Amino acid sequence: MLARHGGDPQSQVYEARSHDRRPPTPPLTHPRPASPDARALPVSPIERFLALVDASCAEDRFVELRLSSPRAGTAGPERVLVRLIRLGGAAQLSFTRRETRRDTTQNLPLAQGLAQIRGELGAPWRSAWLSTTSGDWQLQFDRRDRPRLVAHAAKTAQAPDRAHDAKKQHVLGAEANDWLLALGILDARGQTAPGMGSKRQQITRFVEVLHHLARDCGWDAAESAPETPLTVVEAGCGKGHLSFAAWHLLHRVLRRTTRVLGVELRPELVATANAAAVRLGAEGLSFVAGDIAEPDVLPAVLPRVDAWIALHACNTATDHAIRRGIECGATLIAVSPCCHQELRPQLGLPAPLEGVLRHGAMAERMAEWVTDGLRLLVLEWAGYRTKAIEFVGSDHTPRNLLLAGVRARAPFADPARRRAIDEFRAFYGITSQALDPLLAARDG
Ligand SMILES: C[S@@+](CC[C@H](N)C(=O)[O-])C[C@H]1O[C@@H](n2cnc3c(N)ncnc32)[C@H](O)[C@@H]1O
């Protein structure tokens, strides 16, 4: 029987209560119904863990698996690192066994690799840590050989390169130097210009996350028709850094027919960005002056918008990007919020929080948390599968959260998700918010 304990919201524990030792194993079959949905997973911690490994491989969420803590008295490697690789077009599990003086590597087809892992759980390895882009899980055996499964938050949103022995490919490689130079992020020697290190890091990391999200959307050139145009709008694009980066990813890296439009309130920035795009011959990239909240800010000729993105668009401009993305049925919405001014004055003081929120700094942090939490709930209700990612280190910017949604379900279909929004708002005393038009439209 399996027990689940509450407590730390980052960790959930599943443990065997009776004699849930490693059972004689039923073989794993492929392909599995690939879903980490807790209700669909087996109850035994071991079977549950294996099902999570299996599903993360099938869904390309697998990051790595570590087998460690060898049973006392066992000779052999200190630990094993398992990677998911592509060899000759087929998915394989690559086992690297770390010994004191050398590593040995063995690549196995997926089913065989899973059987290998199954055979090593408990003995010799008393700990197995699975990292995926959607969550981490640790399977541990106690002194009496009882397995216990603990869920943790994902440490990374990025799946590694699957190419066997491939060098890490950077989205913004040397090919990006022309526009990085034109926007003043690089200097004439090709070095990061003074004061531009953080901005460079932000757009580099944002576009790397975008690369993975583009794969989630099926926009990877290998899997979709490159000639099908993709349209991206960036809200509050400033000088256009992220618009250029998104264009670079789609047009130059994924080789898709691309239209990227940056929208910015300040016409002088728009003029400079347009001039740079023309000078560099950046086909499909342009900028327009206007307020993202205004319905007619986008050119009438703009085709369907596939993605709405924003990097530090001020205050509610982030909400306008989310709302407009939802309204036009965009496949992808990815925003990194900036200042959070709208909700702070509205937030009530639910009794147990009062003593904490009298500190301005704490109230500020909660306002950010509540604003972004509400945004995620609205995206979920609108049919998006969401992620909240710290896309860059906080030393580069304290505004380092990225909220992403990939359209996955029929929008506005689940009354429970809508109730969650209403209850959340009521709890925090929220009376108005920039995403309200979406709610009002559904209230009829
Ligand atoms: C903090 S800057 C970020 C600029 C750019 N995304 C970057 O990361 O370099 C925010 C930009 O959003 C623009 N902005 C704010 N509200 C806007 C709105 N409603 N519509 C269009 N642009 C907006 C501002 O003029 C400003 O240039």
Essential attributes:
single chain; 31% helix; alpha+beta; 2 domains; 11 helices; 444 residues; 7-stranded mixed beta sheet; 9-stranded antiparallel beta sheet
Detailed description of the structure:
The chain is α+β, with helices and mostly antiparallel strands and 444 residues long. The protein folds into 2 domains: 2-152, no CATH class; 174-443, Vaccinia Virus protein VP39 (Rossmann fold, 3-Layer(aba) Sandwich), CATH 3.40.50.150. It is built from 11 helices and 16 strands. Helix 1 runs antiparallel to helix 2, helix 4 (197-216) packs across helix 5 (241-253) and helix 9 (360-381) packs antiparallel against helix 10. The protein is globular and about 70 Å long. The protein binds S-adenosylmethionine. Residues 236-239, 241-242, 263-266, 291-293, 311-314, 317, 320, 338 line the site of S-adenosylmethionine. S-adenosylmethionine (SAM) binds at residues 236-239, 241-242, 263-266, 291-293, 311-314, 317, 320, 338.
How many individual domains? 2
CATH topology of the largest domain: Rossmann fold
Report the radius of gyration as a whole number of Å.
24 Å
Q: Tell me the number of strands.
A: 16
How many DSSP helices? 11
Q: Could you give the order of the helices and strands?
A: EEHEEEEHEEEHHEHEHEEHEHHEEHH
- Which percent bin holds the helix content? 25-40%
Q: Termini, distance in Å?
A: 47 Å
User: Can you tell me the CATH architecture of the largest domain?
Assistant: 3-Layer(aba) Sandwich
Query: What is the CATH class designation of the largest domain?
Result: Alpha Beta
Strand arrangement across the biggest beta sheet: 1-2-9-8-7-3-4-5-6
Shape: globular
Mean pLDDT level: 85
* Main sheet summary: 9 strands, antiparallel
Bound molecules: S-adenosylmethionine
The computed structural class is alpha+beta
Q: Percent of residues in beta strands? A: 15-25%
CATH superfamily of the largest domain: Vaccinia Virus protein VP39
Unreliable stretches (pLDDT < 50, length at least 5) are 1-11, 15-35
